[in-house]
From TrEMBL:
UniProt name for this protein: Phycobilisome protein
Native organism: Sphingorhabdus buctiana
Superkingdom: Bacteria
């Protein structure tokens, strides 16, 4: 017999998979690539780059993501501005890099990625970091507008956030030739 508590993790994982499936193919690809870079799962340059420009972008991403362990260690225990300064400064810079790559098209995809990169404990800080990064002048004005319009009032004014860690970490899946698989 299955109790509600044992099936809940499976339902939450399924909800995460459905959310990931709702993102564009380019966003899904970028999230998988980013997780490979962040957690050194695979050689991201070899796996993900299609040309020299993309290879250079992935190399830059490796450099920016070197800050992730520091960012994780700096997650504030309180909502104090003084406690937030070193954390937010680093988080906004890395976030600005990711938004500047043009593959994260809204707050939902950003939150999905950053819950995995930084951790669930940082969720209260994601709306502010996203808005700061999405407002930076390295983005074209129309892109800034689209990004900032993607964050809902409910998210921006949420009274609290879950500390539940994400369960689904999407990875590269090799394509299977359907004619060979039969």
């Amino acid at each position: 017999m299955t109790t509600g508590n044992t099936s809940a993790p499976g339902m939450l994982t399924l909800a995460e998979i459905k959310e990931f499936a709702s993102f564009t193919a380019a966003t899904q690809r970028y999230i998988r690539r980013s997780l490979d870079v962040a957690f050194d799962r695979k050689d991201a340059v070899e796996l993900w780059s299609r040309d020299v420009v993309e290879a250079a972008g992935i190399q830059a991403q490796y450099r920016f993501y070197e800050r992730l362990p520091e960012i994780r260690a700096l997650i504030p225990d309180s909502s104090s501005i003084e406690d937030a300064e070193p954390f937010m400064a680093a988080l906004v810079i890395v976030s600005a890099f990711d938004l500047g790559q043009g593959r994260i098209d809204g707050f939902g995809a950003y939150r999905f990625l950053y819950e995995r990169l930084v951790g669930a404990e940082a969720r209260p800080w994601f709306p502010a970091a996203f808005c700061a990064a999405a407002s930076m002048p390295h983005l074209q004005p129309e892109k800034r507008k689209l990004l900032l319009q993607s964050i809902s009032e409910a998210v921006a004014t949420a009274p609290g956030w879950s500390k539940r860690a994400p369960r689904f970490f999407p990875e590269w899946v090799e394509k299977v030739d359907a004619t060979v698989a039969r």
